[in-house]
From TrEMBL:
Pfam families: STAS. This is STAS domain-containing protein. Residues 1-115 form the STAS domain. It comes from Luteimicrobium xylanilyticum.
C-alpha cells in the first residue's frame, strides 16, 4: 500500500508491505499523481517496506528522475541496507538523498538494517 501526503513544499509517500512486481499495476497512477503535485521535495518513507525487487527499485528511480528533471530532490527515509543495496546495484543510489537521522517507530521497525 502506498499513501500520499502533501504539504506546501513536500510530497511524502508512505510505503507499506512489498514494493515489487506484484504491486506494479499501481505504480503509473501513483507516479502521475506525484508528478502532478509538482512539489520540490519528495520524501519516500520505507519504514514499513518488507521487500523490494528491481521493479520496485525502478519505480523509485523513475520518481527520483522525474523530480530531478524539475529541479527537485528525493529523500529516502527508513530504507533498509538491503533496499539501498538494490538501488546501488541498479546504479541509481546517487539519485537519492538518504535520511540517516530518521528512526522508524516501533510500529514499523526498519527491515533488514544493521544501522
Amino acid at each position: 500500500m502506498i499513501e500520499i501526503a502533501t504539504s506546501p513544499a513536500t510530497t511524502t509517500l508512505v510505503i507499506t508491505g512489498d514494493l515489487d512486481l506484484a504491486e506494479r499495476d499501481q505504480f503509473p497512477e501513483i507516479a502521475a499523481r506525484v508528478v502532478g503535485l509538482r512539489r520540490q521535495l519528495l520524501v519516500i518513507d520505507m519504514c514499513a517496506v518488507t521487500f523490494m525487487d528491481s521493479t520496485g527499485a525502478a519505480f523509485l528511480i523513475s520518481l527520483a528522475d522525474s523530480g530531478r528533471k524539475r529541479g527537485g530532490a528525493t529523500v529516502l527515509r527508513g530504507t533498509s541496507d538491503r533496499d539501498l543495496f538494490v538501488l546501488e546495484v541498479c546504479g541509481a543510489l546517487d539519485l537519492f538523498r538518504i535520511d540517516r537521522a530518521h528512526r522508524c517507530t516501533d510500529e514499523f521497525p526498519l527491515q533488514g538494517s544493521t544501522s
